[in-house]
Amino acid sequence: MKFMKLGTKADTFYTEQATRTLISEIAADLVIQINDITYLLHKLQFPLLPKCGLLQRLCYDSSDSESVSLELHDIPGGEEAFELCAKFCYGIAINISAHNFVSALCAAKFLRMNDSIEKGNFVGKLESFFNSCILEGWKDSIATLQTTATLPEWSENLGIVRKCIDSIIEKILTPPPQVKWSYTYTRPGYTKKQHHSVPKDWWTEDVSDLDIDLFRCIIMAIRSTYVLPPQLIGEALHVYACRWLPGIPKLKSSGSSVSQTEESKQKNRKILETIVSMIPADRGSVSVGFLFRLLSISIHLGVSSVTKTELIRRASLQFEEATVSDLLYPSTSSSDQNYYDTELVLAVLETFLKLWKRMSPGAVDSSYFLRSIRNVGKLIDSYLQVVARDDNMQVSKFVSLAETVPSIAREDHDDLYQAINIYLKMHPELSKADKKRLCGILDCQRLSPEVRGHAVKNELLPLRTVVQLLYFEQDKGSKATSSHKLPKPHEILLGAKDRAATTRDTQSKHSLGPAKEEFNGEEIRERDKQKTKRSDGKLALNLEKKMVIRGDIEETQSEKGRIVRDESSSSGKVNMDPKKMIRRARSKSEHGVKK
Asked: Can you give the residue ranges of every domain in the chain?
């Protein structure tokens, strides 16, 4: 960083009881009060008044031998800036750099140290240094613009802000091969020795040191040129957010303490809302993971509903590109005992589905949009497998998120079954009602044979789900094997009456004789087929009525007693123990898998 040295004399200023003076044989005749500091100086013996037009005017009515007292509390830059001007008048050596240039120039302008007062004055030297050194450098321009925040009105009126911004934008728009100045670039794994070419985002880290208002001025000016791609603008916003916005764990730890003051919260809220307002409209200008991070922080900071809605909308547009790690943000709500913020994911999912349903039917049927919603469905099922391990995850929130995914979004229910199985393992104390509600979202027909075979042997599943699995397993086998039809669960429990009726029909058929049998045989076979279809159609309802949960065994046993009494007159006793029936079906399923 460049600097300018002025003056040659040694610094003879010293402090005594909040009074600054310099070692001199001449008595001080000019007293200047600035805030809490008093300066004892000289009017004519040293070139202080000849170089300062303001002091000349204030001391105009006083005689040469008269001591004058002045108060300059409103001087820009305070006592430090005034002392630089005083040392310049006394010829004491001073160094001017980008860090103290703004305050020195503003104070010199305030004291009217122009060339019109005396040639080669302080203002002229400062302006020359500004134009030839500061504006020509990259980091000097950044540092100078950063210091203008302490004197915004003076800096704006003197044109310092505009000139620094113009210089910075000009360098940012310079093609990377032509960048010759020093810059800060600390990306993980990047070393300048290994990379000889300048990265396209070389400027993002240095610019992120600026105040949010100055940063916004630069970003909006760059966007108006349409030279840089939206992704590069988005990268600059991402770097700035990482530089200034606190992380989620820090937010959660400080949210309940006094350290997170309202002033700090308001500052972070302004930064986040400003960043969101600058995100380019182009899809993919920022990553979906970055959008989810901003959304999670916004919930804690309490940003405006407009900002939150915009973040949800932008995240939903790129939801299919997300990974599970992009969604894993801890809940920032003090009332929510869950570790993961499922409400955030649910809000984005619901907005995604609304946007997806607005598309025309022709567009929805296309392979692109089908693939899009399938990716989201797989993402949610994978996310459920992670949040299922949360000990405090409520069944209602788990089911609500799973049910929000439409049927078309899942090719099968294998991933959903894995999520449910993990939840059951991690929550062994789950009630029967909650298990029923949890497994009610599972469609047994959409499980692969391997997963269905695992589910049949899963002791964690409720009895209703196991019976449904057994039915679909045997129903599938009965359709594939026509020569040897396996007994179905409903035939074991409720088929006694049907078999008795079939027996009576068979006996009556034999009593008609050969001629009648030949005439009505086709009609009888057709009637039997229709009876079988009606019986299969009522299967699901009968199973739910007879075997809902393991606590309904007594009801099943009473039905078994009735069936046994009807069956005893014609076919003898039948063993109808439901537990043994399920055990035999599971053993058959295992035997089928082994074969």
From this structure: 3-134
